[in-house]
């Protein structure tokens, strides 16, 4: 009986794997019931690959209360608006000649 149960479990994983987005969830740190299907598949949210920057004085579309994630390295500073990051979640960028990923 144990072998049958294991076989059914494996078949269930194969059938459900598209719903799980290809993630293996047998070892988890939170209750699987708290994982919500957003309807998005893996890689459905495009990363920003070539962000454009303007001087702070020209960023009139930013409000005083807008949150930013700031990165400073070797005298180079960049700011990433959380309002933009909430739509893309990942920015692949460079700081000087160093590649960075900004995630939210």
């Amino acid at each position: 009986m144990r072998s049958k149960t294991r076989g059914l479990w494996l078949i269930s994983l194969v059938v459900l794997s598209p719903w799980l987005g290809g993630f293996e969830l047998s070892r988890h740190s939170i209750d699987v019931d708290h994982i919500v299907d957003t309807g998005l598949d893996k890689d459905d949210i495009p990363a920003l690959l070539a962000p454009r920057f303007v001087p702070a004085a020209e960023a009139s579309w930013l409000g005083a209360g807008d949150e930013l994630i700031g990165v400073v390295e070797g005298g180079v500073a960049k700011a990433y608006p959380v309002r933009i990051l909430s739509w893309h979640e990942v920015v692949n960028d460079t700081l000087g000649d160093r590649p960075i990923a900004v995630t939210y």
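The chain is about 20% helix and 25% strand. Residues 53 and 59 are 9 Å apart (CA to CA).
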